[in-house]
Design goal:
380 residues, alpha+beta, Sulfite Reductase Hemoprotein, domain 2, Sulfite Reductase Hemoprotein, domain 1, 6-stranded mixed sheet, 5-stranded antiparallel sheet, 8 helices, 20 strands, iron-sulfur, iron
Length: 380
């Protein structure tokens, strides 16, 4: 039996309206359900970061975007800009719109289900239900089209192909013609079980026997043997799509999307980009004859499209000076290690400034932990 979490305070996940006071100023997190970001919305985010705070946009491990170093009162201007761009459809629900989806779903011929319509339907249903605004800001929905890329992220509820998942474990459930409706039912069941257990847990897995009890509320049961063994997003480079199109995936070094990066993406993207949980961006629907030009444009701006690059899999927390708890400028140290060729190629490596280990990737990786005596390298 799993013990319930002893959380003694509500989560304080930042939002675009509820801004976190970081060491370098206000920190706003903008949710991008499924990671999808239209060209016009990207232009708005780029301009907002330049005008209101740190000009670099920060990509998160849930495929969202953060604006850092906001000046006092700038969050009001930011919220107005986001609302005009369609990025803030609900001020009451904006912190709980954490939806991660298979980035190439419906485009590359893989997967059992195109989850893009499910993302839109679930997000609309979430925002329309006033009760769901009570979800913790850490609550995560994973919409995996069956390839096994985002289910290992351990979403509280989700899909794995046409199957419901609870805390990352597939469940046998009554047939449901509307997967978004099933996910909304599961989300409400989480809230009901959470309330019964004291209402303090942030995640489904923190509840005593949470996945099994939520499954029972839905008339379902867990199927541990069906848990996918995959994980990780598409590698940097080209992916073929149907109809003579291609998707180009690029690593954003340390998840810092600079104004130059964003400008290149605006020039490259036909309609939208996709922000992934692995701090990469995907430019989909590029005509094959244009793919070489697009890749050159992205690499010239400093994005990385070579899957063999040492930047692949290298991530870091904010570190100094943005975080008061950090013991080092981990991003500068990570950049120096990549430049010197001392970061293991092909292995996920996460640099962290303190024991909180913010932004750590799921699954096996090498951790570079800053201490008072330098870095400690361990397999996590």
């Amino acid at each position: 039996m799993q013990a319930a979490s002893g959380r003694d305070a509500p989560d304080r996940c930042p939002g675009a309206v509820q801004v976190h006071a970081a060491a370098d100023g206000g920190l706003a997190r903008v949710r991008l359900p499924g990671g999808r970001l239209g060209r016009d919305a990207l232009a708005v985010l780029r301009a907002a970061a330049i005008d209101l705070g740190d000009p670099d946009l920060e990509l998160t491990s849930r495929g969202n975007v953060q604006v850092r170093a906001l000046r006092p009162g700038a969050e009001l201007d930011l919220a107005a800009r986001l609302t005009g761009a369609g990025l803030l459809p609900s001020a009451t629900h904006e912190r709980v719109r954490n939806l991660v989806a298979s980035p190439l779903s419906g485009r590359d011929g893989r997967g059992a289900l195109d989850v893009r319509p499910v993302v839109a339907a679930f997000d609309a249903g979430l925002c329309a239900d006033a009760a769901l605004a009570a979800l913790p800001g850490r609550f995560l929905v994973t919409l995996d089209d069956g390839r096994g890329d985002v289910t290992p992220l351990g979403g509280d509820v989700g899909l794995y192909g046409d199957r419901l998942t609870l805390a990352g474990t597939p469940a046998t459930a009554p047939a449901a013609g509307d997967p978004a409706a099933l996910l909304l039912r599961a989300t409400r069941a989480f809230l009901a079980e959470r309330a019964e257990q004291g209402g303090t847990a942030w995640r489904l897995a923190e509840l005593t026997d949470g996945p099994a009890r939520v499954a029972a509320r839905l008339g379902a049961s867990l199927d541990e043997d069906a848990r996918p063994s995959g994980g990780g997003g598409s590698a940097a480079g080209w992916t073929s799509q149907a109809g003579g199109l291609a998707a180009i995936t690029a690593v954003v070094p340390l998840g810092r999307l600079t104004p130059a990066h964003a400008a290149a993406l605006l020039d490259a993207a036909p309609e939208e980009i996709i922000v992934t949980p692995w701090r990469t961006v995907v430019v989909p629907d590029v005509p094959v004859e244009e793919a070489g030009r697009v890749e050159t444009l992205l690499t010239a701006a400093g994005l990385v499209t070579d899957p063999a690059s040492r930047w692949a899999g290298v991530t870091a927390c904010a570190g100094r000076p943005g975080c008061a708890k950090a013991l080092a400028d981990v991003r500068a140290d990570a950049r120096a290690a990549v430049a010197a060729g001392t970061t293991p190629a092909g292995s996920p490596v996460h640099w962290v400034g303190c024991e909180r280990r913010c932004g750590a990737p799921k699954g096996r990786h090498v951790e570079m932990l800053a201490t008072a005596d330098g870095y400690r390298s361990t397999a996590a």
